[in-house]
Structures are given as C-alpha cells and as structure tokens.
Amino acid sequence: MSSILVTGAAGFIGAHLCQALLARGERVIGLDNLNGYYDPALKRARLAALTGGGTAGQFRFEKLDLVQHEAVLALVQAHPGIDRIVHLGAQAGVRWSLEAPFAYTSANVTGHLSVLEAVRRSEGRIRHTVYASTSSVYGSRTAGAFRETDRVDHPASLYAATKVAGEAMSAAYSSLYGLPLTGLRFFTVYGPWGRPDMAYWLFTDAMLKGRPIALFNEGRMMRDFTFVDDIVEGIIAALDHPPTDGGHRLYNIGNSKPEPLLGLVALLEELLGVKAIRELKPMQPGDVPTTFADVSAMERDFGWKPTTDLRTGLTRFVEWWRSYHG
Description:
By secondary structure, the chain is an alpha/beta fold. The protein has helices at 12-23, 40-51, 69-78, 101-121, 158-177, 199-208, 228-239, 261-272, 296-302, 310-325, and strands spanning 3-7, 27-32, 59-63, 82-87, 128-134, 181-186, 189-190, 212-216, 222-223, 226-227, 248-253, 259-260, 277-281. It has a domain at 3-194 and 226-254: NAD(P)-binding Rossmann-like Domain (Rossmann fold, 3-Layer(aba) Sandwich), CATH 3.40.50.720. The protein contains ten helices and 13 strands. Strands 3-2-1-4-5-6-11 form a seven-stranded parallel sheet, with helices on both faces. The chain has a two-stranded parallel ribbon with strand order 7-10.
C-alpha cells in the first residue's frame, strides 16, 4: 500500500504534517533521531499525539539518524510502499550553528545526501520528494520581497550555507538521475507545538516567569511570521503536484507580510496579560534584519496562499501553551 516517508516527524512542522496526512487517509512512516537540541520530551509528546488518535494504525515511527545512510537506504528498501518523501529532518537554528558547526554539516549535508541516495536507488518508485530549505539562504539582504531568482551565494550563517548546499545537491541529483524534487524555503514558522529556540516561544516563557526578553538589534527586526497550518497546506499542495518534467524546483513559502519584532512583543503582552521586560542587545552574528517572502510562484502553480494573520496565529499558540504547560 502507498506510504509517505516523513523525516523529522517528531519535529514541529513534521508532526503537524504527519497529522494532516493521516487525517486525509494517508499511511505515514515517520523518521526522527529525537536528538537533544531541545528537550526530547516535547518531541515524544508530539509523537504521542500522533499515535494516540483514531489514525494511529496508519502511522509507523522509526527512530533513526539520517547520517546513518546505509540504515536510511535499508529502511526505504524495506518499505516498498513508500512512493513519496517529505524530507524535513535537519539541524535547525542559526545561532547554534556558531557553537556546533559539525552538527549542521552532518544533519543538513550528509543527512540530505542520504535521502537523495535513497530516492535514486528506489529506481523510480519514489515519484516525488519535497524537502525543507530556508529563507536564510537569501543572506542579509533587506530590499523588498525575496524571490526564488535572487542570488543565494552570500549566506550569513553556516546553517544557511548547509541549506544552500542541500539545494545544490538536489539540483545535481535531479539533473543526473531525473529525480522529481521540490525544495521549499520556509519563512519563520510559528504555532502550537513549536520550537523552544524560536523568539515567540522564548518571549512567552520569559514573560510568564518575569524574566527579561532579549531583543537583538534593539528589536529592529522584521520577520515574515508564517503559521504552521498554512505551511502544512503548502507542503501538501507541493507534494501533490510533482514537477511535470521530473526536474528540480524551488519555492518560497511564507506569509508574505513581514511584521516588526516589536509588534510581536506587543501582541504577546496583550494575549498573556504581562508586560515584557525588554533587554536591548546588538545584532547577533549570523542573524539577518528582515525576511519577506514573495509567494506568487506557490499561488500560481498550486493555488496556495497563506490565510492566518499574526494575531490569530499567536492566539492559538498561547491557548496551546496554557494547555500544554498547565
């Protein structure tokens, strides 16, 4: 029976994607290494939510590190029903790449290559692979909306550089072996079950505990905050429409409405009923001042566009936070 392999299935976006795929009747094999970049208990809780519902029988979880390329190949070969892959497994986070660079080359370069090799060796069985890239590939540019045709040869962090490498490897494999591949450049995803290293999570935690929040570049930052449900809809839309020429494509997937970081803080103050203690700090190495997605290609090719405004999305996050943390 047909199945979809989702790498990074215990991650923030991966768990939401698995839930959506199961809800529409898909069989899903989820792969994750449950590493300790942030508390694995949160990852296990996401998995528990996936395996505890009425669709539990359609979901199978495999604990596996993508760096173990032979094991990845064996997994794909052992499940001949896998005919699509969504590759979200990666080492995320710009700032930690300054401290643990080899974690990024292992997960985002070697791990990405493991997936490409598994697709190549499937000999055409895997009819489409969608993989996660990032808006960070655009570097520190600030002028107008970021377009897929913009240059990406000046990444501002090692994290971004590894994602540029993943895009380049994908283009090469598609050209060499005719693999249908679609890369999605995510723009600042947020929402319930989110990542604890993201600003909105850090701010919420600090504000509720009476601690100061760190505002880098003194808060003069703009982010294209994109709600996770919109991201998941975009991933599925792309997955359902493989390249007709069997080639490699890249798309921005974001809210296309950059918001000031201080506006995010003000909204959280309102929703939490707590005044933030603001600690102004200089720009962090590797960070970028602005992200802004031009998503016209996603709308043109898949009819996708985001629908969730920041207030609605943050309200849902805060509701989840209070429920999850009691």
